[in-house]
UniProtKB/TrEMBL annotation:
Residues 484-683 form the Glycosyl transferase domain. This is Exostosin domain-containing protein. Pathway: Protein modification; protein glycosylation. Its main location: endoplasmic reticulum. Pfam families: Exostosin_GT47, Glyco_transf_64. InterPro entries: Exostosin (IPR004263), Exostosin_GT47 (IPR040911), GT64_dom (IPR015338), Nucleotide-diphossugar_trans (IPR029044). It is a single-pass type II membrane protein. Keywords: Disulfide bond, Endoplasmic reticulum, Glycoprotein, Glycosyltransferase, Membrane, Signal-anchor, Transferase, Transmembrane, Transmembrane helix. PANTHER family: ACETYLGLUCOSAMINYLTRANSFERASE, EXOSTOSIN GLYCOSYLTRANSFERASE 1. The keyword Glycosyltransferase applies. Belongs to the glycosyltransferase 47 family.
Amino acid sequence: MKHYFRPFALIVSTKTRTVIFASLLLSFAPFILLFGKISSHLKPKISNSLLCDESTAPINKFNSHCTMDICFDSARCTSFKVYVYPDDPDAPRASANYRKILTAIRESPFYTPNPEEACLFVPSLDTLDRDPRSPRFIHNLQSRLNNLPFWSIQPRYAKQAKDNSTQKPHPGQNHLLFVLFPGSWPSYDVDDLRMDVGSAMLARASASRVRMRLGFDISFPLVTTNYPEWDQSPRFRPTQNGYIRLSLLTSFKGKRYVVGIGSETRNALFHIHNGKDIIMATTCKHMHNWNLYADARCATDNAYYETVSYENLLHNSTFCLVPRGRRLGSYRFLEVLEAGCIPVLLANDWELPFSEVIDWSQAAILADERTLSRLPELLRNFPDSRIVRMREQVRFIWDSYFRSIEAIVQVTLMSIRDRLTLRQKNYGVWNRRPGGVVFSETVTINDCEYPSPNLPPKCQDEINKGFTLIVTIRPPFCKDYLVRLKTLASVFTQSDDLKKAILVWQCSDTLPSSEKLSMRVFGSLPVSVSFAPLPPDMAPLDFVPPSPSNRFRPSHKDIPTIAIWSVELDVIKELELHQINAAYALWRQHPHRLIGFHERLHVWDNKSATWNYSVDTSAYGRFSMVLLNAAVYHRYYHTLYWRLTTAKLRETIDTLATGEDILFNCVVGYASRSAPLLLSTGGERPSSSSNQPTELLSAHVSPGLCQPLWSASGCWSCERSGGQSHWHNECNQRPFPSTLYQQSSVC
């Protein structure tokens, strides 16, 4: 028989062990009770009903290995359409932010009410807040998702119509869920969603770079409940002064949490505060029982916090600090971008919003939370030239991708669509003006096909290929158009750069023959006639004046050159060959700009709170528009005109039979962020051939048409700095209204 040595503790009888354990438990009882009292103060008070509610129990199941190849059925996406489930009358009312998101999707060009043609599915159930302590948390969300008709099995699309095989369930496949607030006290785990998302794609705020499914999920910005919509003015307008370095080096105003996750960085900010050019204003007041955790600095910090204006800090800081909060993301991030301040991020591991398409290294400083003490020296040594470039990039990124809920949703959908198309936008297109949202995938496959001030050298050959002449023919020149056209053509055909002529026909008379015009007027150059055909239910005698917007109908396939020379028949006596060539030469230097000869100005009237249209620009010493009766511009602006203007705006143009010049100027200004360039004809300035009664435009066109684009910093003006030169007027350009932004450069 083998004998084993057994320690004394193992050979004590069961009864004896019970007595010993009870004695030890009683001896430690005071310490256990004391710890219980302390820990009860360190935890937020949560009702027993909440803790025991099965609907709030963590589920958190999702495929961490999801990619577009594994978890997404791209075969459904021959046409990128998004289906939003109808509102569930039995579900809790969605939050204001989620209603805005759903509205933006339904009003986007990607929306479809037909689930059979959908590529992407979005539940109407509010998934934004997944913190069970929040009043906006939806209980039993998992069962509600499971009950969605297409959550597990999507409807058959056209290619599957004849396939009678049984579909396998794939919960969440091709679904998009928006999540702003993952996790809860005390860990705020980014993956704690309290629902099984299956194979669904997540547009999530506060995304972790390490734990995010890169290339599948979308890093979404954290937006406030009062986030601006498309037609609303910005909350924090960028500063106007032209200084590179502002009075403050950096600043921050916000809460510090004293204890718990996210408190370390904000609690350490006082170390870099100097009260001069570095302002760190924090408060301990957070939740109702904040005073239980107050430290020795709280009283001083709270008092100082009340003396500092957050908006003044934003507008007077060269750099704005964005430390992490409980979660990685912070409301400060978008507020800083909106104010035009360069963000300095203290949130290690944060995957920044839309980082898949936005190069944040051009617009933000990614600092390290662990080396906070070195930050002031880093910022003081930052080159001025880089500050200028980054500040400009901040404004571009905000205006293009974050200016409204609609813009944010648009970027979300377009970045997903880009993954599914062979014609993905070049990364550089997203990161230089005018950005990736305003361009269609059919054009931006070629870097040279969009108007940018930074086109690569290879595009110079395309730019130098000449121009296409577009002549708009409309009343009052319908009867004598041929005589006027011959006079105009006699000058333009002398230019070696003219490659084709297009006539935009807006008269009730018989349509001219393009072949005869080519032979008799344009010396055998290619000529085409553009016109809007009558609706099928309209008799030929029921003439309705064509829309003034039809002048932008000629598209990319009709125009063989990048440059367009636009004219009307009122300028036949003032344009000479050297002016035609000079305008084209100037455009080749600035292919993103609008070049013109006849200036106009829109002026804000404080008394009536409306925009007024002024023909006399000399009284104000600046101009903000040029007429299209003699102008040169990039052909892609025709496409942008139809993409950036709404049907309602164009209907107003049709009703007034004028004003498309104004709208087109705003489209170009919005996309290029630049004022037009003005050349001198040296003679008397004519009015446009279109009917432009100043009072009518002042009362209707200016305020009604361009307000959305002006609100987004779309129109710019030029202040005259001297007399007109022979070639073009030199001026310091600035956005109009001038409260939006200032750029010191020469037009």
